[in-house]
């Protein structure tokens, strides 16, 4: 693998060039400034007819030669040159390169447990820059930012501040990445609406209910959103803002049921979208993005999408990926700007279900190219307290970086573009694991769920059971542990994960990253073994002590690893589930002894 992402066009020639200097300790931005200011082995020429991110690069006996029309194109070229010059020798070559998809983004959920510290976020941005991403979003829906309008809500703990956002914004701009604010504004408002001061703004049937959707008909709801925007948006230089609006499950129900019946749910949704968009455009001069799931089934409403607003077409499963074709055609035909949004798929599984993830990313990228999507936004969600480590997002991020820059030939009937997957793994291994082949083993561990008796929507049985009480065997309409066969399946899961982890333990890699992978393996094992307890609780008393011992091994390691990279606030969202499972196991043992 000479370059990653793989360039659009590259010709290898006879001869090699040996770099004059050691660039192994030189970061990308420092290298870019060196190239800008004049470098004895990298020449730069202006090529005004090239596109904004387009560049040409050649290597001969005199060194590297770059052509670009502007600083952004020069930075993309320098990114490739930075990779090449860290090799012992570089083959003579000529390449012409530019992105397939204009906007190539990554979105990280920082609202449902895990809130990364500044240095953690900066390391993520550096990784994105090396992969030629040009957009980054931090998803917010609750207590993760010091909103000036509501300072009392975050007075008791640390989280991101306006100063932090301005610093991150500048850090991204220096790497030609657009930091886009992402504030949910309709559904997913649970964290706010469970507070007594805001509860009345929600849609609910009973006063004691905890709503998740704002009441769009209340003037106070609009004022509340205006206050959040006033606290957040001025700190971002981006011309865009993602206002969310996904999964507004209260729409058409409760206090607004009759109004929605009269006007149509799609019209009520569009009224709220337009009201927010008009305010944001008039006040901040920004263009809104919004998740499109609430209008999938109402193509007649596409003409009500605000001018220049960007619909975000998302779907993370095999079936959802396949259904995207019709949606993309509908957006294109209606003249609606849109992105396609796959997922790293770590939420609900600990690891990313990699066979689904690679299919999802590839499908979205190919649809973007074929039907004219403006962007590819890879999402990274934190459902269930965000227990998964970012280490499991690295390969999906690398793969999406490849697809966003160079999607390659359309998928044929055989290959699954395995070269893209393997090269993404090699890139991650080089960047994070000292060249050790860890990512292939992680890919194998991530597919542990294929051994489970049921295949679930965006989650696995082993991961899901850890957030469900011992007495609850049924999960929605998807499965019931009572119908899940016998221990055979989960014995296989446990044995499989242990074997893969044993191979990882043999490798000499960064110890902290190895600990994060090891912790994940232990949590999968805990979930798998807990599934067996649910299958036959009265016959599992003998396993209680070993499971409690495993929990007691996991807890301190989980806390230490979390606090190293993240703010402490939010850790209890998942840990409370683990504490509860521990108490249930002990109660099961004590009950059997009585």
Folded structure, characterized:
This protein is α/β, with parallel strands linked by helices and about 600 residues long. The protein folds into 3 domains: about 10-95, Chitobiase/beta-hexosaminidase domain 2-like (Chitobiase, domain 2), CATH 3.30.379; about 105-430, Glycosidases (TIM Barrel, Alpha-Beta Barrel), CATH 3.20.20; about 440-594, no CATH class. It has 18 helices and 15 strands. The chain has helices at about 30-35, 70-85, 120-130, 160-175, 190-195, 220-230, 255-265, 265-285, 320-335, 355-370, 395-405, 420-430, 440-445, 460-465, 485-505, 510-535, 545-565, 570-594; strands at about 10-15, 40-45, 55-60, 65-70, 90-95, 105-110, 135-140, 180-185, 240, 285-290, 310-315, 335-340, 375-380, 475, 480. It has an 8-stranded parallel β-sheet. A 5-stranded mixed β-sheet has the order 1-5-3-4-2, with helices on one face. Strand 3 and strand 4 form a beta hairpin. Helix 3 (about 120-130) packs parallel to helix 4, helix 9 runs parallel beside helix 10 and helix 16 (about 510-535) runs antiparallel to helix 17 (about 545-565). The longest helix is centred in the last third of the chain and has 25 residues, at about 510-535. The protein is globular and about 85 Å long. It starts with 8 loop residues before the first strand and ends with a helix. The model has no long low-confidence stretch (mean pLDDT about 95).
Properties at a glance:
TIM Barrel; 594 residues; 18 helices; five-stranded mixed β-sheet; globular; Chitobiase, domain 2
